Amino acid sequence: MNIEVVLAPDPEGVIQRSRFEKDQEIGAQPPPPRARCVVRLKLPPAWTPEEDARLQRLAKENGFRRWSRVARSMPRRSARSCRDRWRHHLARDVYHRPFTARDDDELLRLHYRLGDSWK
């Protein structure tokens, strides 16, 4: 992810300067105009179905552990992004469905037993 920081003039700078018109009449210098910081994030491109299929094949070939080796075969993707994509979206133990009442009951039971500090 690339981050670009840009200093842009403050739109209120004109109002800020007008407050000091009296001071200018007696010879005082107005303060310099304020600037605001604008941060623009350049996000990586979204994963395509072709990349997902390639990642699944490479992960299986490399034993689901050697992510730097997998990333070498995936242009524009780091080992961390490949591992995160696998663990959070493509692994077989990730279920993409709404929670059921049974799931809610299980979560409440586990929370009661384990408390707030559990992974």
UniProtKB/TrEMBL annotation:
Tell me the ranges covered by the HTH myb-type domain, including all copies: 46-94
Q: Which Gene3D superfamilies match?
A: Homeodomain-like (1.10.10.60)
Keywords attached to this Swiss-Prot or TrEMBL record, sorted alphabetically, are: DNA-binding
Q: Please name the Pfam families in this protein's record.
A: Myb_DNA-binding
Q: Does the keyword DNA-binding apply?
A: yes
What residue ranges carry the coiled-coil annotation?
none
Assigned GO CC terms: nucleus
- How is this protein named in the record? Uncharacterized protein
* NADP keyword on record: no
Instruction: Output one GO MF annotation.
Output: DNA-binding transcription factor activity, RNA polymerase II-specific
Question: Per its UniProt entry, which superkingdom is the organism in?
Answer: Eukaryota
Q: Which residues does the UniProt record annotate as the domain Myb-like?
A: 47-90
SUPFAM superfamilies the UniProt entry points to: Homeodomain-like
